[in-house]
## 1
Amino acid sequence: MTESVQWAHSTCPHDCPSTCALEVEVIDSKTIGRVRGRKGHPYTDGVICGKVSRYADRVHHPNRLMQPLKRVGPKGVGMESYTPISWEQALDETATAFQETAKEFGSESVWPYFYAGTMGHVQRDGIDRLRHEMRYSGQHSTFCITLADSGWNAGTGKKRGTDGREIAECELLVVWGGNPVNTQINVMHQFQKARRARNAKLVVVDPYRTDTAEKADLHLKLRPGTDGALACAVMHVLFEEDYADWDYLEQYTDCPQELREHLKHRDPQWASAKTGIPVSQILEFARLYGSTPRSFMRIGYGFTRSRNGATAMHSVNSLPAVTGAWKYKGGGALYGNTELYQLNKTMICGLDLLDPKIRILDQSRIGPILCGDAQDLGTGPPVKAMLIQNTNPMMVAPETRKVRQGFMREDLFICVHEQFMTETAAMADIVLPATSFLEHDDYYTASGHTFLQISPAVIEPPGECRSNHVMLQQLGTRLGVKHPGFQMTAWELVLKTLADSGFEGGNNPEKRSFQIDFDPGFETSHYLDGFEHPDGRFHFRADWNQWPFAAEGMPQLPDHWEVIDEADSDKPFRLVTAPARWFLNSTFTELEISRKKLSKPRVKLHPQDCQEMGFSEGQGVRIGNERGEVQLEVEPFDGMQPGIAVG
Ligand SMILES: Nc1nc2c(c(=O)[nH]1)N[C@H]1C(S)=C(S)[C@@H](COP(=O)(O)OP(=O)(O)OC[C@H]3O[C@@H](n4cnc5c(=O)[nH]c(N)nc54)[C@H](O)[C@@H]3O)O[C@H]1N2
Ligand SMILES: Nc1nc2c(c(=O)[nH]1)N[C@H]1C(S)=C(S)[C@@H](COP(=O)(O)OP(=O)(O)OC[C@H]3O[C@@H](n4cnc5c(=O)[nH]c(N)nc54)[C@H](O)[C@@H]3O)O[C@H]1N2
Ligand code: SF4
Ligand SMILES: [Mo]
């Protein structure tokens, strides 16, 4: 007898540029088996990472939250502080807490808080519809992309770039501030094709020797936060040694003569002193880059983890505009494609209800905010109640010490909707069990490719799990919401959003998965029909004031902006918090395989530093500063400069 195996289409929902097309083995209506990449997808093409290929262990994990919980013991302990309650009771108590808080302190004292646990737009962003209708405080989402986005857009005008598939056609790939072997394996898959076909070269710009850097022809090990200096010196050489494409510069950029003048003194010696990279390597890279027309820059998020990230990104992003690499197939740059997708999300986000006068709080400042920081709170009330979906701020938000202190407040009502008892859930008064992407409907856009993928649920929700959308509907009903978005199912919201954006979704009652390619074609993705500024040019002169939150004193032309925390005798190391291959931010910590692959959290320190400080391999150390601290094991590592700690 032959066994008939059923495979359903799905899309990886995690916060990863790859947004891989998946195939999921369906064992029965409640159980999945294997998960694999979907062959033939034009970009992800059957390749996925190790953690998602073990997804059955995550969806069917014995620690999955299965029923609503109410806290009856102390915060921060976990399951034993909770007792099961019904959904009715959990939602009633949450609604009552929000209503009473809003009545006493005003609606802005309630702060819905979310990030990127799932990247599906319906399930991720629906919380904004509740926010806007109830006039709760807004959220400025600054965990990750803000600095990079503004730096990129200052140059090109829009967050889009060369199609990732063209990596396969390059002669040189420059991976700058990213570690795709860990964080988006598909880049390496595309690059292998270029390497096989024409021996394409790989340059990696990263403070430490990552698994990606291991594969590089040239690895530039710079000091963290000095990318602006490196980029300036490279452009200095491009101008001085005649690699600049003046026809391109005159036609497509705003002030090339001025840039050249500005860079006159930012030479490799100047940059070497700041970056710690030898002059010879800067020259080698500049000459290789300048002499290779089909040079593809894959720009990651790494260097944007420093305070000068926006100006560093803008400086790096200026390189292909100097050489004119944008003109060539396999040339140009890609940081992210999210603005390719022009979607009308009014129905999901309740944008028609948004009142710009309502206070917006900075997500990354949650610690100070919960501790009552007057600058953050402005003239508004303190935050007294929160709904948290899709994020684990106790682990991921900066200034850990204050985050913890804030969450410990007994006068703060917290409802967390989660799949697992995370560190944040363990601080909540009410914990609600959430579905996974395999158990709800949604659509996904990508950062690293051009497809919008529509993916219905593959199995039924386990236990009493409910999706973010259903939870918001049911809480909203209790709060008296009227927006039509609350009346629709998640699937109806998917189709409505597509229809409102001018795409054919059909009524599709049998819920088929499908995808739409937003590839704008070669001319547009390479900005050959103009950059996205009113003058159609790439801007070497950045207008930072177009962003309401821009800092004072940002250099307009590419530069090294000296606002980072330099190491000193008190704090001798600069910290790099690099993504681990078997975890995704704080997700996958429950997976046995991930725990096995990275048995202990470690900090890489240069052997010279270890010797000076008397540290040996495996020794436990506490690293930290006034904002927080963490206990790690020392791993002596010579693949970086001294004075850097890689956690
Ligand atoms: N396995 C895994 N995959 C992930 C994630 C994960 O945690 N684990 N996270 C996901 C998310 S949310 C994101 S945003 C992406 C991020 O993925 P990436 O774009 O790869 O960016 P980062 O995670 O910031 O770090 C990448 C590299 O930047 C380097 N870096 C740090 N500081 C600097 C600097 O000042 N200059 C330069 N040039 N490099 C620097 C780090 O050493 C690191 O190797 O990955 C996603 N995918
Ligand atoms: N310590 C540390 N801090 C970091 C990072 C890091 O790697 N380590 N990375 C930084 C970066 S680049 C980013 S983008 C941010 C990311 O920060 P977060 O967006 O908070 O990412 P995660 O830590 O993965 O937490 C996501 C949570 O969402 C839950 N979740 C997943 N799907 C759903 C769903 O459908 N519904 C609900 N209700 N919950 C769901 C998961 O179980 C998980 O606990 O963190 C930043 N800070
Ligand atoms: S590489 Fe990224 S998008 Fe692909 S399966 Fe892994 S986490 Fe998901
Ligand atoms: Mo991120």
## 2
Amino acid sequence: MGLVRSLSSFIVLLSFLIAVNGQGTRVGFYSTTCPSVETIVRSTVTSHFGLDPKIAPGLLRMHFHDCFVQGCDGSVLLSGPNSERTAGANLNLRGFEVIDDAKKQLEVACPGVVSCADILALAARDSVALTKGQSWQVPTGRRDGRVSLATNVNNLPSPSESVANQQRKFAAFRLNTRDLVALVGGHTIGTAACGFFSNRIFNSTGNTADPTMDQTFVPQLQQLCPQNGDGSNRVDLDNGSGNTFDTSFFNNLSRGRGILQSDNVLWTTPATRPIVQEFMTSRVNFNVQFARSMVKMSNIGVKTGVNGEIRRICSAVN
Ligand SMILES: *[C@@H]1O[C@H](CO)[C@@H](O)[C@H](O)[C@H]1NC(C)=O
Ligand SMILES: *[C@@H]1O[C@H](CO)[C@@H](O)[C@H](O)[C@H]1NC(C)=O
Ligand SMILES: CC(=O)N[C@H]1CO[C@H](CO)[C@@H](O)[C@@H]1O
């Protein structure tokens, strides 16, 4: 009797721990129901990446924007009036067609089994691997949400956010300062539109830039982002290495070559500078932390078990 009781409280404790840590996702969730899932997602991402390498940062960013709003439930993929996709922060998301393509193939291989939220989580991982970052195992078993509202898109950090504000937004999802610096390190691939940082390179009276920037870098940025332009030109966030998942982003930060104010402050703020220093000198430490932080992030608010649904197409609820 005592044994039964302690066994059952052990099981309760165990399921509590699983709920807190992985919230029910696990590596190999589809191993019997859809064994080809990872192969199909990888080959789809690879073929789109071959046509346009910017799809890699696009998918990584899309996964982040999915997880920070309503949890990693594919809500960012839903289209329609007032959906998350219509919010300002999501207007230039890219890679929807990659997810739709993978979903179409998966519906042939194993109909009604694989969630759009999982496809996005796997595609984000594959995007890192394709740009020469280190791969990791992605726990799966997410189910798709049925709610997507532009008005919920307010947890995302803005390009001018202080470290304290970024820390607060990440802490709301139990992501600590190391997670924050590692995940922002995803900017080692990808670009930003000039409009997101033009205030740093031109002030109201002319060509004066943020004094914390490398002043020899400023004229390059001013040339790529003309003051009379519409702000839509795009600039690599990791100058000189924008298509490779490496540590030069941190290196550039340390030399005043961060593009976004929210990236630059990771170097100028004492709370985050030592972590930037660590990652810029150890690619291994960065890769290990990035993978860990991605697994944490991609478990935010996941719907598992009987919650949510498996969408038939990723842009619409069933
Ligand atoms: C803008 O640049 C001018 C010229 O260098 C400088 O005198 C002025 O203080 C700057 N203004 C602002 C708001 O930074
Ligand atoms: C960054 O690096 C490249 C060299 O790869 C250079 O041509 C480019 O203009 C640089 N500057 C910016 C702001 O991207
Ligand atoms: C502007 C600049 O110097 N950017 C550098 C960023 O880091 C990469 C890799 O270390 C360099 O190749 C770039 O020149």
